[in-house]
Amino acid sequence: MLTKDRVAGLLAAFKKLRVLVVGDLMLDRYVFGSVERISPEAPVPVLHVKREESRPGGASNVALNIHSLGATGLVSGVIGADVAGMELKTVLSEAGLSVDAVLEVEAVQTTVKTRVIAERQQVVRVDRESSRCAFSDAGIKLRDRITCCLEGVDAVLIEDYGKGVVDQVLVDMVLAAAHERGLPTGFDPKDNHDLRIPWVTVATPNYREACLAAGIPEQPLPAFGRAIVPTSLAETGRVLTERWNTGCLMITLGPRGVYVRPADGAQQILPTQAREVFDVSGAGDTFISTAVLSVAAGASYAEAAQMANYASGVVVGKLGTATCDATELLDIVAKSEEAGAPCV
């Protein structure tokens, strides 16, 4: 049973943990404004800009979630030697994250996602990024920096956004080193469905990513209850558990919750804990951050999944790439407990 007292204990344990996040670093920019008229030049809205801001995205946001929950976050990846890269390092440093393992490469353009938002509605997103092959020459130097950071950490997380940093050589090195040290690991996949991920403690694909990795056609999930697992989802879970040899597979299902399949336990579906959904951006980052932190703090897989489910429920109630802090997580668990909501 996951209670607020148990959550408080795990959150206290978070403060003693150091977690290294490896993966695709991004800068998320937001342009906020209002629309009051249509352009006479074309049938498009005219945005009156009121404010702009930048936030860490991708693996950077995962590390920021680690920090927001009370642990110490270290981040490693590749950025360009450009203005956006400098801005991302500044934002991360100001947030209290170590960027010693961040590698600047002249041939790379820092990945930037710019979202234009009118009131609370996203109008358009503009992406700037390098091709995957631009990251290939940075591999050896990046792995050297990661090796230096592995000493003294309590868990390692690989966050793949498909931009080119995460390849088989890097995955093999990180997971082997973590396994040798007895460190819990997490892996959040994207489109690199052919990657082998031996010894991963927790893997958190969404349903589409899970089907892709399992080689099973994605099928719309029928209506189901907590105790009823759709056949297609169960088969996807079985294939991935065997293929990845992961300690626990957690397939996120958006508003329908999360499918949890420990290697040594029974599968189950946990319902979503979102109160109100404004934006799902970054919800997966929050989920894997909380799940791996919880396991590193001594939680069972079932407790870790529920903790991550609650934290994601907080984040989707915010606009844009966001994080969940310890106070918010404890508050939503306490409210659910008072309301008699089912817990693990």
H/I helix tally: 10
Question: Termini, distance in Å?
Answer: 5 Å
Query: Architecture in CATH?
Result: 3-Layer(aba) Sandwich
Q: Largest sheet, if any?
A: 9 strands, mixed
Number of separate domains: 1
Quaternary class: single chain
Shape: globular
Could you report the average pLDDT, rounded to the nearest whole number? Answer: 90
Low-confidence stretches: none
Radius of gyration: 20 Å
- Number of beta-strand segments: 13
Q: Could you name the CATH class? A: Alpha Beta
CATH-derived topology: UDP-N-acetylmuramoyl-L-alanine:D-glutamate ligase
- Identify the CATH homologous superfamily: Ribokinase
Order of helices and strands: HEEEHEHEEEHEHEEHHEEEHHH
| Lateral strand order in the biggest sheet | 5-4-1-8-9-10-11-12-13
- Work out the strand percent: 25-35%
Structural class by helix and strand composition: alpha/beta
Helix residue percentage:
25-40%
Short description:
The chain has ten helices and 13 strands.
Structural features, described:
By secondary structure, the chain is of the alpha/beta class. The protein contains ten helices and 13 strands. The chain has a nine-stranded mixed beta sheet, with helices on both faces. Helix 1 runs antiparallel to helix 10. The longest helix is centred in the last third of the chain and has 15 residues, at 301-315. The N and C termini lie close together (5 Å).
